[in-house]
Specification:
alpha/beta; Cytidine Deaminase, domain 2; six-stranded mixed sheet; 14 helices; 15 strands; globular
Amino acid sequence: MKELELKYGCNPNQKPARVYMEDGNDLPIEVLNGRPGYINLLDAFNGYQLVRELKEATGYAAATSFKHVSPAGAAIGLPLTDIEKKIYWAEEYGDLSPLACAYAKARGADRMSSFGDFISLSDVCDTDTARLIRREVSDGIIAPGYEPEALEILKEKKKGAYCILQMDSAYRPAPVERKQVYGITFEQGRNEFEINRELLSNIVTKNKELPDTAANDLMISLITLKYTQSNSVCYVKNGQAIGVGAGQQSRIHCTRLAGSKADNWFLRQSPKVLELPFRDDVKLPDKDNAIDLYIGADYMDVLADGKWEKIFTVKPDRFTDEEKRAWLDGNTDVSLGSDAFFPFGDNVDRAAKSGVRYIAEPGGSIRDDLVIETADAHDMVMCFTGMRLFHH
């Protein structure tokens, strides 16, 4: 297939639209089902790069959930804990394959943002993973291959219209990439910078104890940032991104946004949320929406008389600010990456409120000394990578 005609571009008025290879070669994808859109393909190609790099850097199967050309979540295939099975609605599936675990974590990090996502997998999609995907609201998937049963399961989604793409795993792009803006062509070398453990060797804080698990999480954070619209910050714990802040003009806003998502991820694990008495007829997306409201400032939208009865069998007690803070204080050993330097120590202070102990950022600010001093005050481990990871 030399080119693929699309229904339209980013918006319905943007026609004609297509993707093709400028060198005349075949496209490195095969459309196995459905019809991909312009934004679907942007998500697919960015997401596939991310999971391919995660697999290469960690050795684990990887998955990501993309929305509007940034990851809502990304993870490697570490086994799910009993709590994770509950908060990702995966208890009924028993022991899952590593790839399915990666997908459950990637989708579960920020289920609100992942609604209607495009999925990217590093490995051949197996039946376990397809069964998890089947029950989610999703636009499509890209993977290097599919088990026959998994493919049939996925083809049933969206009344047979679910977009399924197969990526040529041997494909490698040209070293120079181009795009047009306002009729003007931009050209640059591809960002082929390799993120590995050596990148974390310059520890600038007094605390220099960086365990392998934290180093792995920092690499996951940096690889995720490499494919996240800048400015961006990413919180990671136990092999999965738990909060991604993308596309903000101010870095502190990125840190706050990603931190609030990381907090929500941890609040979902509290007994008050796990024991919410949902009615049997409430669907998964509605449960996710209700939980998001319950743990947030708009809790009365689900607890007010006349509203809670539509969701719960019994009216839950309010989750107070004091109770939430007490629970969040139990979140520890979180890792954080930033795609560019922190200009002020306020980013570090905010990160500490979400349990961050390990940080990787490029360094190079005129206030680096202040940022390091702030990290030392929290007994954090901070690495200066010397490498900016902007993505636009």
